[in-house]
Every structure is written in C-alpha cells, then in structure tokens.
Amino acid sequence: MTTKRPLYDCHVNVWDPEQYLPVYHEQLARVRPGGLPPASDADTLARELARFERVIVFSPQYGDSIGIQGAEETTAAAVAKYPEKFVGFAYVDPRRPGYMEQLRHSVEQLKFKGVKFGPIYNGVGLDDPRMQPVYAYCQANDVPLTLHMGTTFPPKSRIELGRPLHVDPVALAYPDLKIIMAHMGHPWTAEAAVIVRKNPNVYGEITGLCYRPWILQKCLAEIQDYSIADKVFFGTDFPFSTFDEAVDGLLVCSQDHDSPRVPSVSAEVIDTILYSNPFEKWWHAPI
C-alpha cells in the first residue's frame, strides 16, 4: 500500500513474552488455529507498525480471562524507547486495591495520555460504582477512555458486558468525557453507530474487524448510513491483526460487489476512516 497521508493506529497492545500465560495459547488455539504473531513487545511494534505516524499503545491486564497479564511498566518502557512513535494509555482494573492511585500515577507521573478498560475481561460493568471515580478523573483531566465493547472468546467472560448500549448512560452522565468504543461493539455494530451519532463525546473505532469481513462490511454501511465516518477511527489491534491485514480488510470493502445483499460503501467513507487522526479529536486540546 502507498499511503497518501499519515496513518495513525489508535489501538495497539504491548506485552512482553513473559506476560503470556499458558491458558492464552490454549484458548486462542480453539478459536484461531493459525495463531498470531508470537511477539508484541516494543521492538516488534516499532518494526511491524513502522508505516504509522503515531501509535497508541497500552498493556491490558487480562490474566484471569484471556490469559495475558500486562503491566503499566511495559507501556512506560515502550513509550520511553520510542517516544516519537508511541503514545501510552493506562490500563485500569477497578477490582484491584489502589486502582485509582495507580491510575493517577500512570497519568500524572508516567504521563500516559489516555485510559483503556475492558469490562468484558475484568467482569466489571460500566454501571459498577467502582467505575464512577474513573469517569470523574478522566473527565476532569481531559483523559480519553477507550472501552473494549463487543464480544470475545474466553469462556469466563460475560458477553453482555460488551454491549454498546451500556455506554449511553455513561456518556450522558459525563458529557465532557471523551469515550471511544473499540471494535465498534461487534457484533452489535448498529448499536454502536447510533450511540456514536447521538452523543457528541462518543467515538468509535474499527480495530479487530478485518478478519470478520461480513461484519466489517455491514458496520461500514451503518457508519455511512448514520453519517458518522468522521467520528470513527482506524487501527490494527496488533497483534490480533497486522498492518496489512487491517488496511487490506478496510480497502476491500470499497470494491464493487455482485451480490445486492452486500451493502456498498463509498470510497469517501473508507478514506475518512483510514486517514482519521485521533490526536485531533480525542482531547479537548490536540496533543
């Protein structure tokens, strides 16, 4: 691919090899026999995502669900090594003692620029009282919150916690909090689209959908129908998809299709998403 303008990756996982637990490989083999790239450390990311101008990285702590237990220190080390490339987001797990102290340390001392949270992985719903200080802190400090919304494969996860509809009350209660729904809440992409359209402070992103071609095609048609392409962002979800997989998966959706049941998506919509820049919209003041 030859890019016309800078590309930005809004969603990348950084993990060191020792943070992968045996249960991760066991579960992944059940749903994705081909496996994934074996590494997602800072050097691998810098090499594999070299064509992106800037990359948002975080190290989720999914040890008791997916089986990868990241750490804030992993993100901090990646950003320190590649400060011109990587922008760090904290990960918050409200089940852990001192989670707000850790969040404040990550933002105020480690200088992370945003927060990631996966309700479906940590078993804490968006309406849980433990999340309220997270929302309040992020809103007060202009810290965007990326939420994993949508399905997943670990058997222990509660699928219902990934429904995009749960974002709506949060957006209403915290109108100055910038909220990003990762993966457009798939397979509930229509829910995600209407919530993005309804709430000025809510955005979507399409990471991880390139290997679900029908869902991606449908999702892009919904984005087009609701005229929200300017609020939807591009990325890889590396290591779950590579640069080429993510870009090619998006570009193929603008090609002509023979079947009338496959909705067409304009090249303008594809272009708007592909060249989206989160650093201009996710903060009240661009970073």
Automatic annotation (TrEMBL):
All residue ranges annotated as the Amidohydrolase-related domain in the record: 8-278
Alphabetized SUPFAM superfamilies for the sequence = Metallo-dependent hydrolases (SSF51556)
Any one Gene Ontology molecular-function term assigned to this protein's record: carboxy-lyase activity
The domain of life is Bacteria
Return any one Pfam family short name. Answer: Amidohydro_2
- The question of whether Secreted is a record keyword is answered with no
Membrane in keyword set: no
**What name does UniProt use for this protein?**
Amidohydrolase family protein
Which species is listed as the source?
A: Nitratireductor arenosus
